[in-house]
Amino acid sequence: MTRSTMLRAGVALSALLACAQTANAQTQQSAQENVGLEEIVVTAQRREQSLQSVPIAISAFTAAELEKRQVTKTLDLVNFVPNMIGSNNTSLGTANTYSIRSLNNTESIPTFDPPVGTYVDDVFISRQNATNFSFFDVERVEVLRGPQGTLFGRNTTGGAVVVIMRKPQEEFGGYAEVGYGRYDRIEGRGSFDMPFNDKVLTKLSAYYANDNGYTKNLTTGERINDENSKGVRGALRVLMADNVTWDAVIEYVNSQQGNIANVYDPATGDRITRSGLRKGKTGTTFSTPTTFLAGEKGTWGLHNSTKTLSLISNFEVAADDITINFISGFRGLSHEFMTDRLTTSTFPTGGAVNATDGDYDQYTQEIKANGTAVDGKLEYVIGAFYLFEDNTTDFADGNNTNAAGVVTTFADRVLRNKTESMAGYLQIDYNVAEELTFTAGIRYTDEKKQVDFQPNINPRVAVANLFSTRDIIAGGIPVSRKTNLWTPRFALNYQVTDDIMLFATATRGFKSGGWNARGTNAGAIQPFDPEIVWNYEAGARTDLFDNRLRFNVTGFYMDIAAFQLPAASLNPVTGQTIFITGNFADIENYGAEIEVTAAPVDGLNLFAALGLQDASYKNLAPSVASQLATCQQRLAPGSGATPALIAAVCNVGIVTPTGTIGKPVRAPNYNIAVGGNYAFQLGGDLELIPNVAVRRVGNSWISGSNPPQGRVEAYWRVNAGVSLDNNVSGWSVSAECENCFGATVITAFLAPHQFLDEPSRWAVRAKYKF
Question: How far is Cα of residue 660 from the mean position of the Cα atoms in its chain?
Fold first, then answer.
């Protein structure tokens, strides 16, 4: 997509908007009542507003819309959001890596932070190890695109996924749902509102999911990449007075979900792997028992398990012109996993192995006030935020080096790291005129990070790789970092008519710096700087044709400084995968996003979303520029460079095997989603509702150096279903398929292995609302 193409597209969109405005004005004259699309209330600016009045690129989904689109977990959202793609983290079915406008992070070690923040009920989730959670009583989900550093803070350079759970209701009620699907999958979800009286309201919600796994391990005969997850959530709402409300939540989730590397067998149509590791946490781990990791990790087999305890408290006091919230959150996460990337050979002890035993605690406290002043002409949000993280990660990396089962353990260590972050923020919206609003906001963040490494006693690890914090300091590498940063925001929005709003914004955001914690020696624990983004947007929000058509368009330009990229390369001599994260270059990205929702006739709902972007590197880091020059010299005819010398600098980081600079990862030039549903009235209170969602994603890369195996070809993905509903009696039955035609999509590449998306699934469900 060239710049001239984008300019022509912008002219065409402007003409379309002008025509639509004229047609809408004519339609409004004859309209008798407001029907069609429902109004969606969002909190993208930390206060309640209509979706169509918010000058932010945002996709919002109500609970009803999520159900119609078969969205049952956070990862399903990527099927519907412009310029957003996502997948499970490498080997971790419980963890999601989101990419919005080319910004992403695939690392789960806690010295790395995600650029797309996840929030539940206004509480930030620092670690992405357990972000692939199920929706079992959600009210609304908002996906904010672009940096949200002023109101949401650090680690939202790409955007934010904001989940708002349904509060306890004043009347007894709820729902229960059961389902059965492919791979003998059994599901159950339910939620029950149980008010004690008109002042004390409670809610209990729970879910369960279990299946046999979609991958067959041909070495051990077991089925892996299965799921066994369960969770319970209790919510309390106390209406202390007319203007005082206390909401409290306790939630516990135990999720076991694998994502071990596997390949598609064209002869059988099955997903297969050949790992020598057996499944489970205890007992006989290997087909030929061999312990090569220190501590409890040495008894593990293949598994990925997260246990999460979350506590949330939101105390709200409201007055005529101001509302104050005291929001407290605690999240304790235990994460254990043993992975293997062996897919094509048979070794007694597995292939490339990573094991992690982590405990991650975070505490957040926020005080936020919303209010109005100057006779309602000025609206403001002001607050203070505090975060503290305390993490311990016991992790190791190993590799099988020959068919006899001799294992090399590259590193086995314990990482302890802490983060303390404090921030204050203010945003004001001033109504310059009845139709024109000027927004200015600012946030100041002061954060400190520190790391500590200690080696585990493991005789298989080379002496040079038995390092501690003392060795890191001796190498001149800092083990603590401070960041102080201002992140402002400016916006103008103009209400052309009641149904058309135009806006323009400029916003700054940043993602925290850190350390390359996967390094296997002291010199490799290199720090990397914060990622800083300026984002410029302009767009329109429209409700047209008597509220039958919602047409939202946004154009953006992002200037990303010190882009953080987790990269990996294969050492051809040792077979070790070398991990390094650094600030390789800056990125510029520009594009457009269009979202259309339509209800042309009663019962018919249609949607379409289009994301266009063109991301490229600029301003190479000096080390990368030097690496590129050396690579080109060694590739030159007659250089005499050996394959090992070439591999040392080519196909590493963002330098390609052919001696060029690669394209940014997980940044397809386009993604398209279209679909809809229609309610056929069958009589007797029955409705038959078929639905379909089709997604097209353009070519992209999943490896920073852009090797051929790291290219994802453009693909189609189709989800579809049908339900029979009785809205009076409250019951429904449904059948659905996900990835109906079995598209095989590569989601990650760690040389020499590719990771694939899940295969197609089908399910039948029965639900009862009361």
Answer: 30
Cβ atoms 215, 221 nearer than 8 A: no
Per-residue burial over 478-503, b if 16 or more Cβ lie within 10 Å, else e, is ebebebebebbbbbbbbbeeebbbbb
Q: Which helix (H) or strand (E) holds 10?
A: helix 3-30
Which distant-in-sequence residues (6+ apart) come within 8 Å of 461 by Cβ? 409, 410, 411, 412, 455
Q: What is the DSSP string of 253-285?
A: EEEEEEE---EE-TTT--EEE--SBPBSSSS--
- In angstroms, the Cα distances linking 25 to 32, 352, 500 are 14, 64, 11
pLDDT digit string, tens, across residues 546-585: 999 999 999 999 999 999 998 877 666 666 677 788 999 9
Tell me how crowded residue 221 is: count the other CB atoms within 10 A of its CB. 9
Query: What tens digit of pLDDT does each residue of 657-705 get?
Result: 999 999 999 999 999 999 999 999 998 899 999 999 999 999 999 999 9
Q: Which amino acid is at 42?
A: V
Those residues with Cβ within 8 angstroms of residue 289's Cβ, 6 or more apart along the chain or in another chain? none
Strands 263-264 and 215-217: unpaired
Distance, in Å, from the CA atom of 715 to the CA atom of 692, rounded to the nearest integer, reads 17
Sign of torsion, CA 519 662 510 478? positive
CB 731 within 8 Å of CB 766: yes
Cβ neighbors of 565 (< 8 A, separation 6 or more) are 581, 582, 584, 653, 654, 665, 704
C-alpha 516/C-alpha 32 separation (Å) is 63
For residues 344-354, one letter each, b for 16 or more C-beta atoms within 10 angstroms of the residue's C-beta and e for the rest, the string is eeebbbbbbbb
Q: Is the bond preceding residue 668 a cis peptide, omega within 30 degrees?
A: no
Residue 83, C-beta contacts closer than 8 angstroms, at least 6 positions apart: 100, 101, 145, 591, 593, 611, 612, 613, 671
Q: How far apart are CA 135 and CA 310, in angstroms?
A: 15
157 phi/psi in degrees, rounded to 5: -65, -35
Residue 545 CB burial class (10 angstroms; 0-12, 13-18, ≥19): buried
The pairing of strands 271-273 and 215-217 is parallel
Let me know: does 312 contact 236? Beta carbons within 8 Å: no
Q: How far apart are CA 53 and CA 498, in angstroms?
A: 10
pTM, rounded to two decimals? 0.92
Asked whether 492 and 438 are in contact (CB, 8 A), the reply is: yes
Please, which pLDDT band fits residue 23 given cuts at 50, 70 and 90?
very low
Nearest residue to 45 (alpha-carbon basis) of 328, 377, 380, 446? 380
Contacts with 509 (C-beta within 8 Å, 6 or more apart), sequence order = 146, 147, 148, 149, 150, 156, 157, 487, 532, 533, 535
In our burial notation (b when 16+ CB lie closer than 10 A, e otherwise), range 567-577 reads: bbbbeeeebbb
Please give the Cα distance from 76 to 516 (Å, whole number): 30
H or E element that contains 238: strand 227-241
> Which token pair is 336?
């254990």
